[in-house]
Design brief:
The protein is mainly β. The relative contact order is 0.17. The protein is elongated, with a radius of gyration of 26 Å. It has one helix at 68-73; strands at 11-12, 18-19, 22-23, 29-30, 35-42, 48-55, 79-81, 86-91, 100-108, 117-123, 129-137, 144-145, 151-154, 160-167, 177-181, 184-185, 189-194, 221-226, 235-242, 248-258. The strands form four sheets. Strands 1, 2, 3, 5 and 8 form a five-stranded antiparallel sheet that branches. It has a five-stranded mixed sheet with strand order 4-10-9-6-7, with no helix packed on it. Strands 12-11-14-18-17 form a five-stranded antiparallel sheet, with no helix packed on it.
């Protein structure tokens, strides 16, 4: 009879870890509270026994090197996962917030536990808050209120400038895209952003700049300039708002009537 002595715990490399198919990054944002977790552990002795994970445990049940066996025995973990080296499981236990915590630990058949992996998971399920405010034609100082039902009449002899507010308190604002005149992809449109919210026509920002992801949580307003030589046609002016987590919303800004 032979006895295998195994005192070496399973190990891992964080580089192998993926959430929803993307390389783990503690600053990344996701748009769902359910996601697949996958990665690789290494074991050269007695073989893998079981994997365990904890999602947002109570403070007293946060696993560490000294309490892990007690927590596993008391079944304080969220669930188990099969492990043969590579592993993959799906959990829906996250909340729509920044700073969810996911802890992973693997046990081998000799009873050795791997180091506890602590992961940060950020979830944002809400699209950007988007609003229309004002528009002006050409260099006119006449700034008019804009709503979704506004009809802007243009002969394409002057540029049109449209102003609105946009912000996202969680993952942050991503770049506006998908601009269309009716069903036609727009050309001749430029969108810039400001870190100042538009309160009224007397307080329109002047610090407009191209999109910069470093300002994603500071952006408060947007400006669209439609050049007079754009490909504008009569119909609804639409665009897509996006946040960093990937929440997309298609918005109707207003209607254009082109009469040349």
């Amino acid at each position: 009879t032979s006895v295998l002595l195994d005192t070496v715990a399973p190990s891992y490399t964080k580089d192998s870890l993926k959430l929803k198919g993307t390389q783990y990054d503690s600053s990344a944002w996701f748009n769902s509270t359910s996601m697949t977790v996958a990665g690789t552990y290494y074991e050269s002795g007695s073989g893998f026994d079981q994997g365990y994970f904890f999602v947002n445990p109570e403070e007293a049940d946060v696993p560490n090197a000294t309490n892990i066996d007690e927590l596993i025995t008391a079944k304080k973990y969220t669930d188990t996962f099969g492990i043969t080296g590579d592993f993959s499981f799906t959990t829906s236990g996250f909340e729509a917030k920044a700073g969810n915590k996911l802890y992973l630990v693997v046990k081998d058949k000799a009873g050795n536990y791997s180091k506890v992996q602590e992961l940060t998971v950020n979830v944002d399920e809400a699209a950007c808050v988007f609003g229309r405010k004002f528009y002006q034609v050409g260099n006119s100082t006449d700034i008019k209120e804009l709503t979704e039902t506004t009809n802007i009449l243009t002969n394409k002899q002057n540029a049109i400038t449209i102003y609105g507010n946009i912000f996202d308190a969680a993952s942050g604002v991503a770049e506006i895209n998908g601009i269309k005149f009716g069903t036609t992809a727009a050309s001749g449109c430029t969108v810039t952003y400001s870190n100042t919210e538009i309160a009224d026509e007397s307080h329109i920002p002047t610090d407009w700049a191209a999109y910069d992801s470093a300002n994603k949580n500071k952006i408060k307003s947007w400006k669209m300039e439609i050049a007079k030589d754009s490909n504008a046609v009569s119909g609804a002016l639409k665009l897509n708002t996006n946040d960093v987590a990937g929440n997309l919303s298609t918005e109707t800004v207003c209607t254009l009537t082109v009469d040349t």
